[in-house]
Amino acid sequence: MQAASPEISVFWQPGCSSCVRVKEFLTRLEIPFKSVNVLSDTQGRDELRRLGARSIPIVSKGDEFVYAQSIEDVARFVDRMDAITDRLPPEILYAKWTKVLGVALAIIPLIPEAEFDAPFRPGVPRTYRDLSYHIFQVVDAFLQTVQDGLEDWTVVANVDAPARIQKKNDVVVEGKALAEELQHWWLTLEDKSCQHPLKMFYGEHPLHQFLERSTWHSAQHTRQLISLLSEKGIDLPSKLEADDYQGLPLPKGLWT
Q: Which InterPro entries does its entry note (predicted)?
């Protein structure tokens, strides 16, 4: 007798940090799901469009779905809010994010020049240029959301590096400017409890949650870059250690 198909589906693509996290979350809870890689599954892409989802990852059941940008939304969708743990305090998250960005700025210049615009891993549709810039796109999207009221931050965070980013130094210059803008935002933020709600395309969520998400998101991609450069035998002047990751809801996997 053939086993019944899982009721839950996860739509994802390789290299997507939130995709890795939600798949690990459901696996840890022993919730079976159909894995739909929208890069290689044409029917999966058609189903994603039919559902009306504007980005991935999503978790679906029948005609209903939830965006997995918020793991709390996923937990509520599968009736497992007991699996949600407390976040680090906002000031700790900010400090960790600052450390992450500093490490990224220190190692981006070490990317081999000849490989900067080349894909770095089979099956992952990104170049070193895209990956390094994406670390700071997360910052840009965060700032536009919290300062300007941008609701769909994916239009900033989930696009390829723009044409003006041609060299490693272009990433470093923009990255430094965004890190400084983030510092200014934090230093001038009156309510550092970060409890006020933000309206985003997947609903209203507290600033604290979005700060956590943005912090671990930049950390995950910096972690990927550290791994790639270390595999090449490049001596890195700065790295992220276990203490830097402690308390962040990072996925265990780097890519899938």
A: DinB/YfiT-like (IPR034660), Glutaredoxin (IPR002109), Grx-like_ET (IPR051548), Thioredoxin-like_sf (IPR036249)
Give the closest residue to 55 by CA, choosing from 142, 159, 133, 211: 159
| Residue 1 pLDDT > 50 | no
Cβ atoms 74, 68 nearer than 8 A: yes
Secondary structure string (H, E, C) spanning 172-235: HHHHHHHHHHHHHHHHHCCCCCCCCEEEECCEEEEHHHHHHHHHHHHHHHHHHHHHHHHHCCCC
- Does one domain contain both 71 and 118? no
Query: pTM of the prediction?
Result: 0.89
Burial 207-232 (b: 16+ CB within 10 A, else e): bbbbbbbbbbbbbbbbbbbbebbeee
Share of the chain above pLDDT 70, in %: 98
**212 phi/psi in degrees, rounded to 5:** -60, -45
Distance between CA atoms of 154 and 54, rounded to whole angstroms? Answer: 9
Q: How many CA atoms lie within 13 A of 33 on its CB side?
A: 24
pLDDT at residue number 126: 86
Q: What is the CATH number of the domain that holds 55?
A: 3.40.30.10
Question: What is the average pLDDT across 180-201?
Answer: 96
Mean pLDDT of the chain: 92
Number of structural domains the chain divides into: 2
